[in-house]
Amino acid sequence: MIGVRWLKARAARWLGVAMLAVMVCGAQADPAFALRVSTAYWKTPQDKILHYWIDAGSFPDADQLALLRANLTKATDDWENICRDCGIRFIEVANRSDATFLVVGVNVQRAFLADGFNPSDPRDKWVLKIDRSYFNPRSRFDKIGVLRHELGHILGYRHEQIVAPEDRFVACGWKTERNTDAASVIALTAYDPESLMHYPCGIEAESVLFGFSPLDIDGHRRLYGPNPVAVAVPDAASPMTGAPAAGTPQPVSAE
Ligand SMILES: [Zn+2]
Fold this sequence. Notes:
Elements: E1 6-8, H1 12-24, H2 31-38, E2 49-54, H3 62-81, E3 89-92, E4 101-106, E5 114-115, E6 127-131, H4 143-154, H5 166-172, E7 185-187, H6 214-224
Parallel strand pairs: 2-3, 2-4, 4-6
Antiparallel strand pairs: 1-7, 5-6
The structure holds zinc ion.
Zinc ion binds at residues 1, 149, 153, 159.
């Protein structure tokens, strides 16, 4: 299925706790930093090494398997390269038992081209499914881009259009999702129609690249990038009260 700016988050309810922890330590509170402290998704350096195993036998032929493997390598490289210092790495492994998630060919007859998972899903759902239709040479969806988008879900990001303006939502025919649960997402950036996690509108797009927008990269770096440098409270005698200082950034609202 995030807009890179939308983290499907049970983490949301922990956000306040994390913010307090940051403030108590006298650092300049940053919502993304608090999010990183609180979120359970790919947080530790070990968690950030995502091993995947491709179920070769589930793909109908060697050519499709080779194409999928090559495209997945490019898509994972793209995510790694927009933030080398995030520590996110995707590595193919030879043994299923070593994998964080599986990559499996399925035949759902175009119900989707590919379907990732969200890290809040149960562990047994951590499967990236690839439909036969993914390999259609006439598809208007960029094949590497489709995988970039699905890897976005795997990193915790939801569809961007869930917060699109209502009229746009209707006009574009996005029927399946709307952000109706205020606690289920956390905005990392402003709404971004150019996000790779945003569905195209109807058939207005001749081809769909699913490339990173500048805000995609900003949001991703905020969530997974190096920790912000803590800014000491100027008056050493006054910190550690836990009370937010004037002008302290507030937690991102969970729309
Ligand atoms: Zn999606």
